[in-house]
Write a sequence for this structure.
């Protein structure tokens, strides 16, 4: 089991990734964690692979949404060979394909990990989302 990144004394300025929502492998919804798969704007510099606590800006919405974001090649699934940027937006269930999102990664939660199977990944994603919600609530930027 990957151990969480220790708490940091302060938060660095967020890393911002912008890009259009594209189709992924459609496994996320079946696992209970639907994600918006982002195709980063060409030339974007991506952060190290890992799981991040995030705020997302959607077009035409004044408030930002809390999210938990995965950056990596989803090593639990052998068919994924490229780096994916996927946002699980908290308390949100709308079609976003083709829209341009802005991801503000505010904290790195942990490394990307290869799990024995989907059940182990789901259990970890549950913990990630709880940690992410708690951090956003502590920062006063989203409800837990
Ligand atoms: C919070 C979160 C944490 C994740 N952590 C991992 C991980 O450690 N290892 C991994 O293989 N995939 C990880 N993923 C990516 C999932 O494998 C991916 O979201 C899932 O397979 C659905 O992909 P799809 O949208 O292409 O169907 C994570 C996704 C989320 C939302």
């Amino acid at each position: 089991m990957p151990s969480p990144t220790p708490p940091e004394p302060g938060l660095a300025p967020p890393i911002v990734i912008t890009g259009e929502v594209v189709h992924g492998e459609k496994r996320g919804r079946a696992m209970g964690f639907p994600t918006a798969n982002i195709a980063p704007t060409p030339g974007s510099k991506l952060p190290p692979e890992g799981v991040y606590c995030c705020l997302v800006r959607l077009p035409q919405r004044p408030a930002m949404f809390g999210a938990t974001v995965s950056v990596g090649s989803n090593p639990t699934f052998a068919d994924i060979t490229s780096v994916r940027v996927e946002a699980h937006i908290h308390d949100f269930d709308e079609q976003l394909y083709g829209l341009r999102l802005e991801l503000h990664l505010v904290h790195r939660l942990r490394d990307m990990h290869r799990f024995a199977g989907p059940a182990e990944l789901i259990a970890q994603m549950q913990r990630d989302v709880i940690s992410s919600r708690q951090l956003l609530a502590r920062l006063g930027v989203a409800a837990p």
User: Anything to note?
Assistant: Helices lie at 118-138. Residues 17 and 45 are 8 Å apart (CA to CA).
